[in-house]
Write a structure and sequence with these properties.
Elements (H helix, E strand, L loop, with lengths): L2 H33 L6 H21 L4 H25 L3 E8 L3 H10 L5 E7 L2 E11 L3 H11 L4 E7 L11 H10 L1
Antiparallel strand pairs: 1-3, 1-4, 2-3
């Protein structure tokens, strides 16, 4: 196989795939950052994303006869979307509000969450089957698994819903070990 065929059928599709993964990952992160109010990074990510895209499309147009480049383009788009979501999930940015509805066990769960450093607000309510307690807690996304574990441990089968919070002020959040060390040094 001549070198030009290797480029068109093997190397170019791999370059297109990798480039597409990179630019779509950046695009996915840019959209997520923007929707979460993290607008500082969005313009930079958009610049790099479009730069990669322009260079890559130029290569595809030069080698328009390469079906494998088209497949690499589509596969890179799908993979880039998935990789962007994985990265965002690992970064665990943002704040969540949990609404927990309990017919029983609210006091124990409230105490456990507060002992873990989370703020909890309790409200009496009426559910389909009688009196309930509604517990609200606002947590950092990185702490969600810990809070969910506490809920499952104290009140297995509890109903709770989770929503993203665009912004919040004040509140009670567990201190990270780094912040605790800084505060104790100041005293």
């Amino acid at each position: 196989m001549p070198a030009s065929d290797w480029y068109a059928w093997v190397i170019l599709p791999l370059i297109v795939f990798a480039s597409r993964v990179a630019d779509v990952t950046l695009g996915t992160l840019r959209i997520i950052f923007t929707s979460r109010g993290q607008r500082k990074f969005a313009p930079l990510l958009g610049f790099v994303e479009v730069l990669i895209w322009i260079v890559m499309v130029n290569q595809i147009v030069k080698n328009a006869h390469s079906l494998t480049a088209y497949i690499g383009y589509a596969a890179g788009f799908a993979t880039g979307t998935y990789v962007g979501m994985l990265i965002e999930d690992r970064m665990a940015m943002g704040t969540l509000v949990l609404r927990i509805i309990l017919a029983k066990g609210a006091h124990e769960l409230t105490s456990a969450l507060r002992n873990a450093g989370f703020g909890v607000t309790s409200v009496e309510g009426e559910g389909a089957q009688g009196a309930v307690q509604l517990l609200y807690t606002v947590v950092q996304r990185k702490d969600f698994n810990r809070v969910a574990s506490i809920i499952h441990e104290i009140c297995p089968g509890a109903f709770f819903s989770v929503e993203e919070v665009r912004s919040s002020e004040m509140g009670i959040f567990p201190r990270s070990p780094i912040m605790s060390a800084r505060v104790s040094r100041r005293k």
